[in-house]
Amino acid sequence: xxxxxxxxxxxxxxxxxxxxxxxxxxxxxxxxxxxxxxxxxxxxxxxxxxxxxxxxxxxxxxxxxxxxxxxxxxxxxxx
Length: 79
Hints:
mainly alpha
């Protein structure tokens, strides 16, 4: 699969992943920490070789982490 086809096939997922990465940085994670979260989901596989299901797995992991982070921040605000 060419890189062009890859980004077309997974474009929506990549856009969501990029938004989630920004949101995680906004709540206090370092960009390298977010990249590490992604690498933990896909191992050493090149981003250009990820399937749609792998992109969805990354997206789900980032959404879960963001939800946990928001809950923690809300607990701090309530204290």
